[in-house]
Here is the input.
Amino acid sequence: MIQSRNTELSMAAGRNPDLTEFKPELLCPAGSPAAFDAAIEAGADAIYIGGSEFNARINAKNFNDEEMRSAIERAHAYGVKVYLAANTLIHDREMKSFLGAAEKAYLYGADALIVADIGAASLIKRYMPELELHASTQLSGHGVDAARRLAEAGFSRMVCAREMSADDIRRFTENSPIEAEVFVHGALCVCHSGQCLFSSLVGKRSGNRGECAQPCRLPYKTERGNGYPLSLKDLCLAEHVTELIDMGVASFKIEGRMKSPEYVRDVASIWRRLIDERRDATREEMEELEKIFSRGGFTDGYYKRVIGIQMMGVRSDENKRDTRELVPFEGITRKIGVELEARIEKGKPMSLTVLPQNITVMGDIPEEAINAPTDEATVERCLRKLGGTPYEAKKVDIEIDSGLMIPISKLNALRRAAVDAIAKSVSPKREGARANIEVSGSCGERKNTRSAVFYNPDAITDKAREYFDIIYTPLLGHNGRSNGVLLPPVIFDSERDDVMVLLRRACALGADHALVGNIGHLDLVLKAGLIPHGDMRLNVTNDASMAYCEDLGFEDVILSPELSMSAMRDIGGASAATVYGRIPLMVTEKCVGMELGGCNECQNGRLELVDRRNVSFPVRREYKHRSLIFNSVPIFMGDKKSELDKAKLSMRHFIFLDETPDEVDEIINSYEDQLPSNKPFRRMN
Here is the structure.
């Protein structure tokens, strides 16, 4: 069993330096009831599952209401926790349904909800304050500042970004007010979680809504011909178990809700052994994990901060041949040992006590025997019949007065009552929301302003300065030619001080505004004295999220480009939308440019990712050699003024990536005069 949650919290926050007895939680995936049972069989401390909607693996079998209720009851019998993954972005018209699903999970006994929508989380804490919340990795938590904001929002745990290094994780566990959950095994997305729009805007299947088409697993043209520059090997940190335990990581998470029950059982069994024996994996165990499933081996590149081509991998025919045949999973064989103490006395109700649960149930008063009295062996035989339950009687202690007759049916009823009492004790009854759920939204002031990001400051024209109220340029290259700065999408704690220096320099050069894409970056901007504006990376898709951002102090927020214009109309307050430009589809920790032409080409902005249809996606260098991948064509709405007016936007936002000064002026003219574009483009949804 794992430590109590409060003990874990104090350890994870660095307040208890003695970790010699600390054992982290083993958190296993289950995309089906069979995989759920496999996780129990393998020794999971906790299991995460998805319901029939609102989860990021919507193509898994998942759990209907009855399957979920039964699974939670079954897990609790084994002392296993269950977390419901409700980790998609929610639209306003779905919010009541989402909250109803959350309430249902709470009533069934779910131990926590894994949430990716900050607005939905705020409503859950209002109506179901007892329900524990875990911040999904889709919330893009990279460090302690994000954890502090999440703690204020009611989260007790943050699922750490997979890109965090050992030093990042250590710094987090020493300073975070909430627990750290770390992915230790399974598939890796090349894009930072919560920041990928590739599948959605190119393939019309949103990863943020559980429908990812995995464009990162497809081939693209590279310097060496066709390759897979976005396909990462699976993560495996099994060689770092002792270090992670010593850091005080609260939960070791295995990815794999799309995997088979056999995969879950076999991978989890090895991790169970490593945690229990408090040791790192041997070479033989690593090879065994590879034989279960791999993409050309495993990687721990992010963890060790060795990021490069050696992290890339695909599922080859050779990998498939090397995969060993998995023994079919045939159900839970694991039993929970209990001791039974029966007391059967003349003239008194029978009693049966179950240990170590220390639960006692009462039965009928035994009758006096006329012919054949019931003997101790008969009583024991009836009480031991625990088949079909998770329990096994290790010891049966019976005290029975002589001359009594107890019908077999009465003994069976006594045994069933004891089993039912145990089930009720591990899944206590909960009450529903205290009032009818009302979804209220933001009340921020609507303005009528325009902003733009210029990735190339040389393209800022006099007309642009006149047309836009705020012009942002990337923080790293800010030179005083704009009144706003665009923060990097990713800032680890180790990079925080350097970013603070850049922000103060930008202030000294006349910047007043900052475009912020992560709630963990807000404190940096406020300390620098800049006015914060929310970027599309905040993934605001509903009124409650907008209200949350306004409460934090954002002047306005650019809505998610995944929203339709009709959905945007549902959101009040100071909402903005991107009405022109190439949308950033991915931010990658690895430098994609290294495989497309090298650092010089990347820095000069000449790199493109070309897919199998010969469509080109511009690649640009980001802070610390990360990469940004942009859509192949820009959004254009210059000739759709009436539609934009109906959206009731507070601000209209433009993105200029590689446009020349003449093209910038031409685009502005199109929006002023409602002219169509003569170049390839896409519309807002």
The domain at 5-188+236-281 is CATH 3.20.20.70 (TIM Barrel).
